[in-house]
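Reviewer 2 asked us to include a model.

Predict the structure of this chain.
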Amino acid sequence: MIGAMRQPQIYKILLIFFLAGQFLGCSSLRLAPQETPRALEASFFSMGTRWNFSTTGVSPEKFQNLKAKLTALALLYEETFSDWSESSELRKLEKSGLGNKQVPSALFWDGLLLAKDAYLLSHEKFDITIGDVQWKLRKFPYGLKHLKVDTKEKSFSFSKPVKRLTFGGIAKGMALGDMAEMLLRSGIQEFRIDAGGGNIVEANRNGELKFVSKSRIFASGSASEIHIFDPNSKMSLRKNLDEQIELHCSGAEFSRGALMRLGALSDALSTALLLDKTIPMLAHCKLMP
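Predicted model (structure tokens):
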């Protein structure tokens, strides 16, 4: 009788049953395997580019909400900086005359100042006034040295008759920085946003964030690279070669302004480096071999 058994005998019997259950495949006694968080992915189209967004550790409902916010941000940048949409803020400012005092939106103002930073840091190689050349209004640009800004009222004008600007080569990087800050503020630690392969921002759970900017010019030249200008030769970027630049920049400060600046400048300087390898490297950035 079990009731008459000593305790050590009972423990031995229970141990035998436990081992038998394990041998026969009794899964109810096993620990459930740890599952890797499932990655959620989505894409959307804006600024002439297909954007891909992925993250982990969020519900499908929250993921869709984040995608909607990212899409709205991309559309805001398109409505602000597009040089082909007649309804964009850029085109409206151009039509009203860039020689007149203009008071733009806060986003346009930020983009204009970042473009000026890129112009100076690139030894005048990156130049948004190349829009005049791109639209065949001039043979060479006037340059951002003719840009006048009033930081108190946040207005600007040009002292030369600049007609067209282009924010190609800087707007997507700036947008990625804005998007990264929004995701971090929403508690998303791990994510990746790819804007057409040329501009990427990614973050991991270790608190590391990185911008990857790739620029390439083909042997035949490319109209999309015409926002780079050599002030010495008075020529826009046209090289008889096939070359690619890849710049990696790590975020050290995660405020909105800091991330927008790092994204914008990594985008702009990666293209300018195609023309001039002596351009000083940004802090926390490195040129990949």
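The two ends are 79 Å apart (CA to CA). Helices lie at 7-23, 60-81, 89-96, 106-121, 131-134, 171-185, 256-272. We have added this to the supplementary material.
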